[in-house]
Amino acid sequence: MRPEAQQRPARPVMLDVARRAGVSLKTVSRVINEEPNVRPAVRNRVRAAIRALGYRPNSAARTLAARSSHVIGVVALGSALYGPASQMFGVERAAWQAGYSVVVSSLGETTTEELVRAVGELVDHGVDGIVIAAPVHVAPVAADELLQGIPAVSLDRFPDEMGLPAVLSDQRTGSRDATEHLLRLGHETVWHVAGPFSWHPTQERMTGWREALESAGIPVPEPVEGDWSAGTGYAIGRELAARPEVTAVFAANDHTAMGLMRAFFDAGRRIPDDVSIVGFDDVPEAEHLLIPLSTVRQDFEAATRRAVGELLSMLRADGRPAVPDLTFVPVELKIRASSGPPGGIRTQAPMTMADQE
User: Can you state the angle between helices 14-21 and 25-32, rounded to 10 degrees?
Assistant: First the structure.
């Protein structure tokens, strides 16, 4: 054995914590596992000893002793899209604040098969509960079969017969508000560039848009399917820019809206004089564009904090709620410079950036 190995201090164990705090091993275990029946002064003394010694509980031993891993599993979308990425960060932060670690299983595709695989990995990992933070287009599958008895909550809506509790942004109301805003400005109708039609958020946003038009007695244009990207938004925008009757567009997300804005600019259409554009999400850069983007703000932090809170309540109740609920988190329309009254179509050559300013 090398001399430096002999001199290396031994890793502190639970007995060291108990001796330093002047309590029993059972009391240390209760504090570590957040069990009741420990006086606040004693709990604080044990925690101080843990910090002073740099003691780190053994995860495997802790799981066996407490029948709890203190780990939350997250089914995430293997994508850098703003919404799913914000959900992932929010879940991780909320779990950490509650004293839980997070393990992630990412989806390769938004299918039933991939969901079953991802959940199976988390179950095998021994997680206490699962947050599904990915949009998945699934056929109905029994929740008990999918989750194998593990409590779970979703940030996307699943078929009602699955009985899976969900915390959702109120996307339908937000989309309706965005469309009504454009109609109040005087636009004869509002076109919609959607996300992938198979996604639940796409369907919710299309429904809100359609409801607003139908309530106003206005014909509903055919929605155009996109893929959430600025590139596709630009390609669709080039086609819409060639149609003089298009004076207002509601985009399914902000990156699509940014692509649309560039396409209309390149085609010589001023924003908002010739065409108004409203997005969805309120990404950080939306208000800092050359023409700040009107958009619907989702409160990802509130939604993920609520979802983790619901899951922890289920864990304390030793299972799922008897009647699964849908909880809706409010959204907010942020009106900025990209939306305004219709001002007519320009016919001259495309503008320079100085013209647009």
Answer: 110
Q: Edge to edge, what strands does the sheet with 294-297 contain?
A: 224-225, 191-194, 248-251, 276-281, 294-297, 332-334
Residue with tokens 């299918």: 111
Residue 5: predicted pLDDT: 40
Residues 6 or more apart from 203 whose CB is under 8 A from it? 197
Task: Please provide residue 51's backbone torsions phi and psi, each rounded to the nearest 5 degrees.
Answer: -65, -45
Verdict on whether the full-model pTM lies above 0.85:
no
Give the ranges where the chain is alpha helix by DSSP (H). 3-7, 14-21, 25-32, 40-53, 59-66, 82-97, 112-125, 143-147, 171-184, 200-215, 230-241, 254-266, 300-316, 353-356
- Do the Cβ atoms of 187 and 158 come closer than 8 Å? no
> Which CATH code is given to the segment(s) 3-66?
1.10.260.40
Nearest to 19 by CA among 40, 56, 45: 45
Mean pLDDT, 10 residues at a time, the chain of 357 residues: 45 78 82 81 90 69 56 84 86 90 85 83 86 76 72 84 85 98 97 94 96 96 96 98 97 98 97 97 95 96 92 76 76 97 55 39
Domain ranges of the chain: 3-66, 71-168+300-330, 171-299+334-356
In which residue are the tokens 């076109």 written?
191
Would you say domain 171-299+334-356 falls under CATH 3.40.50.2300?
yes
CA–CA gap between residue 326 and residue 167 (Å, rounded)? 6
Give the per-residue pLDDT at 291.
Answer: 97
Tokens of 130: 């699962």
pLDDT at 3: 42
CATH number of 71-168+300-330: 3.40.50.2300
Strands 332-334 and 248-251: unpaired
Residues 198, 337: Cα–Cα separation, whole Å: 31
Q: Tell me, what's the pLDDT at 85?
A: 85
* Single-letter residue type at 141: V
